[in-house]
Amino acid sequence: MIAIVEDDRGWEDYYRQLLADYDLKCFHDGLAAVQWMDQTVPELVILDILLTGPTGFAVLNEMQSYPELAKVPVIVVSSVALPEDELVKYGVWAVFDKGDMMPQDLLKSVQTALERGRNGR
C-alpha cells in the first residue's frame, strides 16, 4: 500500500493515473494520514510539504516517532525548494520538484523504493 499525502486534487488524479498498478490510499491533509498510519504501516509514502493542516514536516516528525513508520521510505514531491541533506534525517528516499518532475523518474523512484523496502532497505 502506498500512502499519498497531497491536498491538491489535480495532483491526486495525476498519482492515481501514474501509479494505477499499485494499491493507493490518498489523504488530503497530514492529520488524516498520521491517524491512518497509527493503525496501518504503508510500504511507501508520497508526501507534499505544503498541506492543509499539519505540514509534511509534521507528518515526517510523527513518522520518526514510531519505529515501524520510521523505516517506511518517503518520496517528497513539492513545489517548495527543500534541502535534500536536511530531509535525509527524516529517511526521505527522494525529493522531486513539482515544476520539473518527469513521470518516469517518479515511477522509477517508487519502484526502487518499494523493492528496497521489501528487501529490508
Task: Produce a short descriptive summary.
The chain is an alpha/beta fold.
Descriptive overview:
With 121 residues, the chain is of the alpha/beta class. It has helices at 9-18, 30-37, 56-64, 67-70, 84-87, 103-118, and strands at 2-5, 24-27, 44-47, 74-78, 92-97. It has one domain (2-118): Rossmann fold. It is built from 6 helices and 5 strands. Strand 4 (74-78), helix 5 and strand 5 form a beta-alpha-beta unit. The two termini are 17 Å apart. The mean pLDDT is 90.
Topology:
Layout: E1 2-5, H1 9-18, E2 24-27, H2 30-37, E3 44-47, H3 56-64, H4 67-70, E4 74-78, H5 84-87, E5 92-97, H6 103-118
Parallel strand pairs: 1-2, 1-3, 3-4, 4-5
Distance between the termini: 17 Å
- Report the sheet-strand fraction: 15-25%
Low-pLDDT parts are: none
CATH architecture label name: 3-Layer(aba) Sandwich
Oligomer: single chain
Under CATH, the homologous superfamily reads Response regulator
Rounded to an integer in angstroms, the radius of gyration calculated over CA atoms is 13 Å
Number of helices: 6
What is the succession of H and E elements?
EHEHEHHEHEH
Strands of the widest sheet, in order across it, are 2-1-3-4-5
Question: What is the percent of helical residues?
Answer: 40-55%
Kindly report the average pLDDT value.
90
Strand runs, count: 5
Question: Any idea of the CATH topology?
Answer: Rossmann fold
Determine and state the CATH class: Alpha Beta
What sort of overall outline do the alpha carbons produce when their principal axes are compared? globular
Total domains? 1
How is the main sheet built?
5 strands, parallel
Structural class: alpha/beta
